[in-house]
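ok trying again, last paste got cut off:
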Amino acid sequence: MLFIGLTGSIATGKSTVSSILSSPPHSLPIIDADVIARKVVEPGTDGYNSIVKHFGSDILVPASDSMPENGVDGKGRPLNRPALGKRVFGDSEERKKDRGILNGIVHPAVRRETYKAILRHYISGHWAVVLDVPLLFESGWDRLSGVVMVVAVKDAEVQMKRLMERDPHLSAEDAQNRVLSQTDVRLKARRCEARGKGKGVVVWNDGSREELKANVDACLQEIRKSSPPWWNWLCLLFPPLGVAAGTWVYWQNIRINREWQELELKEKARL
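nice, full thing came through this time. structure:
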């Protein structure tokens, strides 16, 4: 089974691409890290308890007539995501530290749930599964991906405009902080292209949805050629072969990442 690592940045259209991939004629299963991340911090979970312990009750939805002090089910009030966002989005040292702590709580729990979902889709016989992960490179999921797909925009102003249209409650400063809290999507696109033909695909999304869908369809057609149905059935019927293929992909990706790091060091040395 082929792992397609899907990533991008905030307001670049990754969710739209995910929707296209999950709809006919592609109908690919999507493992959405954002959905899982929300699940693992629901009231009563270990993740929720750890977050409240570190950040305090100020990042919870305020108690009210409709929201009891201990939550509607007695497990605690839900996280107030805008309030939590103000604590972790931004490029100051304090924000970076809090963001690192939050990621350290959420990422391991997300990883466990993702492995479970991968196993379910593998047993179901799907030829590919999409790992929809905003921090694909940062969290190391690219090492498991046979193909990485980055949804990007060439114009940073387009990204900011879309974000503020999507989330009108954000101020210009808040929107900028959210964009700055993630790796520049243009850099992600360069890293994706550096993986080489057949291993990295960049979907540019500066145009209309129709243009985006045409780009995605064309990309997936090329990806399908490199992962024919007979190969996936063979890996399913003979698990040791599937494990060997996965190990080979993992080793190749480690080599690709090492080459990218060396390239980054050379570019920094020129500055």
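cool. The chain is about 55% helix and 10% strand. Residues 239-270 form the longest helix (32 residues).
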